Amino acid sequence: MGFSDIVNVNILGKPSSCRIPPVKVRFKSSTVARKVLKNQSKLKGSQCFVSESLTHPRQEALNAARDVVGMRNAWSVQGCIFVQSGDQVVRIKELPEVVLLSCLQEARVLANRQESD
Hints:
Elements: E1 6-11, E2 23-27, H1 30-38, H2 56-69, E3 74-77, E4 80-85, E5 88-92, H3 95-116
Antiparallel strand pairs: 1-2, 3-4, 4-5
Helix pairs in contact: 2-3
C-alpha cells in the first residue's frame, strides 16, 4: 500500500490553531480501505483515529447505539452497524432497532435489580 492507492484527500472544516481538522481519504479499492480500517488499532495512544464514512441515517443509528451500549460495544464494518449486548453481537439496520435494543437493555437492568432485591 502506498500513495498510488489514494484517489483523493479532502480536509473537512477549517484549520485552526487549537485542533487539526478531519481529513477524508478516498482509496482506489475497498480492499485497501479495509486494510487501513483493520490496522486502525495501531493508532491507539495517538491523536489520530480512522473511521469509515457512513450515510447520515446509519451514522445516526451508530451514534444512538453507542449512547445505549457504550462506545466500545457499537461499531461499523463496511457500512453495517454491529452492537454487542451481553455476550451477543447483533447487526443493526435502522434507528428503530436501536430504540428496541435500548428497551431490551433497560428491561435487563430492571430484571437484575429485582433479582438482587
